[in-house]
């Protein structure tokens, strides 16, 4: 009995669940992973302290990429912008529309109505391109994967690029959309090109514009002159009448 009691006292105490979990393979792996992350964060802080310019450049690049990712436009925004540009052109007469703007918008609207526009997200920017068929089309050419659009043909099919909340190609095509260049192609070459005004011309125009707001003083002076002349004439007439009366007397 005494020997059994001594053996029981000499036996080690049983480990708790937390200690058993830490000593397991999963616990060892998690501790090593946390240790690696701790060392990596420490190296990042020390490197940023030692090289502040390099760290600021990296932070700026990461911040710019994050902002571009969150401001990246989607297909719904492209559809809204396209309809808005089409409405702007429809308010103008066909004689006043820019041929480049009208042709580009009308072609994209036609592809949209045919269901041939596609949208691709590339992380920090978006692409809108066109395909040959509508996805709901049941023709063999439309459903066969071997006849689908190849990736090497994608640059030729891109219609617009969305970046930083804007669709750049559509906005560039809409520059001077209300100016029809064909109206001026029959004019001489020196009249087709307009040059910006010089500094002297700008100053002269500003001076004339400021003078146009001044009160007119020439009319007041002319009226005062006319009143003085009339007074002098009346005084001379009165003196002549007095002289005539004196002669009669």
UniProtKB/TrEMBL annotation:
UniProt-annotated stretches for the region Disordered: 224-249
Stretches with biased composition (Basic and acidic residues): 229-249
Record's GO cellular component terms: TIM22 mitochondrial import inner membrane insertion complex
GO biological process, alphabetically ordered: protein insertion into mitochondrial inner membrane
InterPro entries linked to this entry: TIMM29
PANTHER family: MITOCHONDRIAL IMPORT INNER MEMBRANE TRANSLOCASE SUBUNIT TIM29
Protein name (database record): Mitochondrial import inner membrane translocase subunit Tim29
Species classification: Eukaryota, Metazoa, Chordata, Craniata, Vertebrata
